[in-house]
């Protein structure tokens, strides 16, 4: 019997499972919605709701805690500066799961995980990288 077992392992070891959910939540923060299996969406929703709830308190300690999870500053800044202010009047329920039917290859239930209220501009606050062609033209313009 599996009494009081709350976590699903998804046939992965701990590091792989943490990396999976870090990637899913990161994509959710950067794009506003992700499509994945229903089981993964339910687990990612648990993590995302907790992180958005923490991000509403925009202190340095909170940013450091979020940085420990994500590992990159641009995702943390996007979460704290773009997404959390949109949910200032909500206490919970920041994400929504919509069923999308079954996947053709293996008949697994697919779902779309989205933010309930989208910010006016989704995407990272990170400065976009220049393509190699744009870098060459930028160097020529500075000379």
**Strand order within the widest sheet?**
1-3-2
Helix content: 40-55%
The N- to C-terminal Cα distance equals: 71 Å
Mean pLDDT: 90
Q: Count of DSSP helices? A: 5
Q: What string, H for helix and E for strand, traces the elements in order?
A: HEHHHEEH
Q: What overall geometry do the principal axes of the alpha carbons give?
A: globular
Low-confidence stretches: none
> What does the largest sheet look like?
3 strands, antiparallel
Give the beta-strand count: 3
Structural class, from helix and strand content?
Answer: alpha+beta
For the CA atoms, what is the radius of gyration? Answer: 18 Å
Strand percentage lies at 5-15%
Tell me what you see in this structure:
The protein is α+β, with helices and mostly antiparallel strands and 143 residues long. The chain contains 5 helices and 3 strands. It has helices at residues 14-31, 38-55, 60-70, 73-83, 132-142, and strands spanning 33-37, 95-102, 109-115. The protein has a 3-stranded antiparallel sheet with strand order 1-3-2. The radius of gyration is 18 Å and the shape is globular.
């Amino acid at each position: 019997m599996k009494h009081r077992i709350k976590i699903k392992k998804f046939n992965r070891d701990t590091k792989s499972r943490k990396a999976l959910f870090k990637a899913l939540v990161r994509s959710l923060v950067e794009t506003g919605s992700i499509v994945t299996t229903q089981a993964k969406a339910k687990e990612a929703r648990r993590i995302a709701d907790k992180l958005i709830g923490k991000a509403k308190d925009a202190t340095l300690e909170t940013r450091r805690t979020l940085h420990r999870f994500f590992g990159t500053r641009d995702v943390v800044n996007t979460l704290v500066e773009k997404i959390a202010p949109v949910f200032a009047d909500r206490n919970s329920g920041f994400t929504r799961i919509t069923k999308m039917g079954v996947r053709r290859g293996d008949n697994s239930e697919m779902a779309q995980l989205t933010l309930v209220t989208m910010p006016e501009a989704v995407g990272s606050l990170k400065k976009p990288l220049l393509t190699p062609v744009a870098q060459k033209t930028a160097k020529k313009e500075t000379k």
